[in-house]
Design brief:
4 copies of one chain form a homotetramer.
Chain A lengths: L1 E5 L3 H12 L3 E5 L7 H5 L3 E2 L3 H5 L4 E4 L4 H9 L13 E4 L5 H13 L3 E4 L2 E2 L2 H6 L2 E6 L2 H14 E8 L3 H30 L3 H9 L8 H9 L9 H18 L4 H18 L7 H7 L3
Parallel strand pairs in A: 1-2, 1-4, 2-3, 4-5, 5-6, 8-9
Antiparallel strand pairs in A: 7-8
Chain lengths: 289, 289, 289, 289
C-alpha cells in the first residue's frame, strides 16, 4: 500500500514517523520542506508538491491545522484531491467541524475519491508513542482498509459512524479538554488569592475525582512555569469555535463552551496563542491582581 | 468527650451514625425530630432544643444547609453558641463561604467558644462509608483534638490553614464538581443532536482522561434516568453562589463558574432543585429540541 | 434602469413594493411565487426562475434570509450570478457576515459582475415606510449608481467602506439590537419576581436613558402579549452567530454577544424561533418560576 | 426640620450642597473631614462624629459607597442609628441590595427609628444640577415628609413600594446602565478591528435607536480619552454583584448581568477601578490586539 502523509506539524510529524519506522512505503509533504528531513533519513520519500505526493497513493492521510488550510491544500487551485488516483482513500485527521467533513466528502466523491474523517484524541506525547485514539467517520470497510495504519499510530480506533461522525466526536472530546483546563485554571487563580500556595493547589485539586485526569500531566509543567507547546492554545480556541458552528447547526445552546471560547480568545490576544493551552492560567492570572 | 451533632440531613445523619456506631457519647439535634429516631436506637441521645443539646458538649459538630440556616441556629434568638460551655469547640461542617466562617469564628470567640470550619469533600455514599475528606480551617491543636472524630467519619483530613481556609478550599472543590457536571452534560446533549446515542456518549466520554472521574458514578444513574438525590442540585447552585461571593471579595473574575451558576439557577426554575445535581442534564435537554 | 428584486419576505416584499410604486421597471422573484402577486398588480414583472429574472437586469437586489440561502440562489447549480449581464451590479441586502460578502464579491467578479453589500438597519415598519438605513460596502461610484433606489427604500445611506464593510457595520448594529432586548427582558423578569408589576417595569425602564429607544416600540406589544413577527427571533440568533464568526476572524472576544447568542438559541429551542425577537422575554420567564 | 447628611463623596457632596444652598438647617459628616469645608462656608454645620451629627436630627440622609460601609457607620460600635432621636427618619440613598435595606429597616425599627431606602438614578452631573431621580421604598407618609428635600436634590421621585423596593428598582436601573456600557464597548472594540475608525463608531452607533441614550454622554469623553470619574467602575461592579445577590434570592437567572459583572471584575484587575465605568472600553481593547 502506497501511503502519502500531508502535514508534518507537531502531530503529523510524529504520526508519519511511526509509519515510516514500520518500513511502510510513505511519501510525505509539508509546506515547509525542512520538516521532512528526519523522515527522509528514516526512509520516507519527500514530494515537492501535493500533486506529486498523492498521484500514486492508495491512501492519503492529512493532518493539518484548520478547515481553511485543509480547504486550500485539498481543493485550492493546486489542491491535491483532483490529482488522486480513482477510488483512492483520503483520511483526514485534521480537527475540523462535521459540516466541513461532510462537504469535503461530497467534493472528494465528485473526483471519485473516498473520504474518511479520522481526527485523533491525544496530543504530542501519545502521537510520539503511537498511543492516539482515532475517531473515525465513514464506511466500515474503508476503515478496515486502513485499520493497520491506525494500529501503528494509535492504541484504539472508534468507529463513530458515517462521514462527519468522527469529527463530531472529536468536537465533544476537545470541548471537554478545553473547558476542564480553564475551569481548573480559574480555581487555581482564585485559590491563590484566597491564600493557598500554587503548588498546594496544583497538587491537591488535580488529585481529586472532580478534576479531569489529564490535568495531572499539566500541573508539573505549570509548577515549573513551562508552557512549551503540546497543544497550541490557538488551536484549542479554534476547536471551541468549530464546536460553536456545529452547536449552531444543531440548535443546541452551549453556554459553557461559548464562554470558554471567549476566554481562550482573550488569552490569544494576551499573546499566548502559540503556547500550550495550559497557558490559559497565565492569561487568567493577569486579571486577578 | 461529649459530642453534639446538629443537623441530620443526607450528610449529617450518616456522619453522626458513624460516630454513634463507635459507641461515642453523642447527643443529636435536628429541626425535624423524626430524623433522630434511628440514631437513638443505636445509642445516641436526642435533645429537644439546641440549648439542651449543646450545654454539656465538649465538641459541637454542625452540618447544615446554608449560611443563613447556620446563622439562625447558631446565633439567632435561641441560637446554640451562647449556651455552649466555655472554651468548648464548635466544628462547622456546613458548606458556607470563607467570609461567613470568619464572622462565625469572631462571634463564637465573643462567647469564648472555639471555632473550626471543616467542610467535607464527598457526598452521600462517602458519608455513609466514613470516607469523607475533611477540609479544615483553624488552629492545628484544635484539629488534633477532634482528629479521631474526623478519622471515624472520613478517610482523610487536610489542614488547609487558619479559620476560613477549610471553607475556601471547599469552595474550589465544589466549583470543580459543579462545573465538570454541567460541561459534561452540555456535551452529551449536543452529542445526541449530532446523532450519537446517549448510552454511547455516557460511556465513551466518561472513560476519557478529559473527564472528571466522579462523572463515571453519575453515568449509570443517568442511563437509567435515576436522579435520586445524593447532592441536591439547589445546594450545588448555592455553592456556586457562595463561590461568587468570595470571588468578588477577592477581586478575581470567575467567568465559567458564574455562567455555571446561572445554568443551575435555570435548572432550579425548571423544577430540579431537589433532584441530584446530575439532573442538570434534564434541564439542558429541554433547551435542545 | 432595469431592476430585479430577489427575495420577497417580510423585508424584501416591502422594499420591492416601494420601488414598484415609483413606477420603476422592476422584475421580482421569490421561491414561493404567491408572494409576488400584489407586486404584479402594482406593475412589477414576475419571473419564473432566477435566470429569467436577472438576465436583462442592470441591477439585481437580493434580500434573503441567511448566507446559506444567498449562496444557493446566487451560486448554486441554477445560481443567478452566472446569468447576469456583463458588468451588471448585484446589491445584496441580506444580513450575512463580512467574510461571506467578500467571498461573494470575489466570485461575482469572476463572472464580471459588480457586487455591493448593502444590508439595512430597520425592520418591518421602516421597510414599509421607506425609512430604512442602508449600510453600504463597495465602490463609491457603484453606490452613486443606485443611490436613487436607496433613497426610495430608505431615509439614509451610509457608505461604510469597501466590500464587506456594510455587512461589518450591520453586524454591530444588530449585535446592539439583540443584546439590548435580552438585557431589558432579563431585568423585567427579575423585576417581576422582586414584586413590581410588568406594566410598571415596561413603562418605567423603557423611559430611562439607560434603555435603548427602540425598546419603547416593543413594550406596548409585550404588554398585550403580542409577539407577532417584525424581526424573527431565529434571524436574530443567526445574526449573533454571524457576529461570532467575524469576531473569531478578527480575534476579538465578545463575551456578552456570545452569551446573548446562547440565550436566543435557548429561546429557539423553547419554540419561539418564528416569533418576534421580543419573545425572548417569554423564554426567560420560563426560567424564573 | 433638622437634617443630617452623612457621606460627602462624588454624589453626597453635591446633594448636600443643594440642600445647604436652600438655607436649610443641615449638619454634615464625612469620614474625611476636609470634604465638608466648602459646605461649611455655605452655611452647613460640620459634626466631628456620627453620634454628634445625628443626635438632634429629624431626618438623617446617608449616601455611602457599599452595604458594608453603611453597616459599619450605621450599626457598628460607634454606629449612628442608636444615637438618633426616637421616631426620627433615616433615608438611605446608598445603592445596596434589597435584602440589606430590609435588614437595615428591621434593625432601625428596634431603635425606634424609621427607615426609607431612596437610592438615586443619575450620577455626578444630575447630582450637581439637582436632577436626580429618587427611587423610594417605604411608607408613603414618610416619603411625603421628605418630598421637599427630594424636590431640591432631584427632578422626580418614584414611590417604588415598601421597604426595599426603592433599592430593588435601583438594582434594575444600574444593571441596564452597566450592561449597555459594556455591550457598546464590545462593539466599538470589534468595529475597530473590522477597520472602522473609533470616532466613526462612537458617533454612528451612539446615534442609533439600538443604543441607550446615556451612551452619547460618554462618547465625547471616550473620544478624548477622558475617563475621569463620574461613576466609578468599581461601584458599577459592586452594583452588578448586588444584583447577583438579589437575583439569587429571587431564583431568577441573569446570564447577561453575571457575565457583565465578570467583565467589570476583569477591568478592576486591569487597574480601572477608580476610573469612570466607561473605562471598560480600555480594559476590553487590551484583549483585542
Amino acid at each position: 500500500m502506497k501511503i502519502t502523509f500531508i502535514g508534518l506539524g507537531i502531530m503529523g510529524s510524529r504520526m508519519a514517523k511511526n509509519l515510516v519506522k514500520e518500513k511502510l512505503d510513505v511519501t510525505v509533504y509539508n509546506r515547509t520542506q525542512s520538516a521532512a528531513a528526519e523522515l527522509v533519513k528514516l526512509g520516507a520519500t519527500v514530494a515537492k508538491s501535493t500533486a506529486d505526493a498523492v498521484k500514486d497513493a492508495d491512501v492519503v492521510i492529512s493532518m493539518l491545522s484548520t478547515p481553511g488550510v485543509v480547504n486550500d491544500i485539498a481543493f485550492g487551485d493546486s489542491g491535491f484531491v483532483k490529482h488522486m488516483k480513482q477510488n483512492a482513500l483520503w483520511v483526514d485527521c485534521t480537527t475540523v467541524d462535521p459540516g466541513f467533513s461532510r462537504d469535503a466528502a461530497a467534493k472528494a466523491r465528485s473526483y471519485n475519491v473516498r473520504f474518511m474523517d479520522a481526527p485523533v484524541a491525544g496530543s504530542k506525547i501519545p502521537a510520539e508513542k503511537g498511543e492516539l485514539v482515532f475517531l473515525v467517520g465513514g464506511a466500515a470497510h474503508d476503515m478496515q482498509e486502513v485499520q493497520s495504519l491506525f494500529d501503528i499510530m494509535g492504541k484504539k480506533t472508534v468507529h463513530a459512524g458515517d462521514t462527519g461522525m468522527g469529527t463530531s466526536l472529536k468536537m465533544l472530546v476537545n470541548s471537554q479538554l478545553a473547558q476542564a483546563m480553564v475551569v481548573f485554571a480559574e480555581s487555581v487563580v482564585l485559590g491563590e488569592k484566597m491564600g493557598f500556595s500554587r503548588d498546594f493547589l496544583l497538587e491537591f485539586l488535580s488529585a481529586l475525582p472532580v478534576t479531569a485526569p489529564f490535568i495531572k500531566l499539566k500541573t508539573d509543567k505549570i509548577k515549573s512555569n513551562d508552557y512549551s507547546v503540546e497543544f497550541p492554545l490557538e488551536w484549542m480556541q479554534k476547536d471551541l469555535h468549530l464546536l460553536g458552528l456545529t452547536a449552531y447547526d444543531n440548535g443546541v445552546p452551549q453556554f459553557m463552551a461559548s464562554v470558554a471560547s471567549e476566554i481562550y480568545a482573550s488569552a490569544k490576544a494576551d499573546g499566548f496563542a502559540r503556547d500550550d493551552f495550559s497557558a490559559i492560567i497565565k492569561s487568567l492570572e493577569k486579571r486577578a491582581k
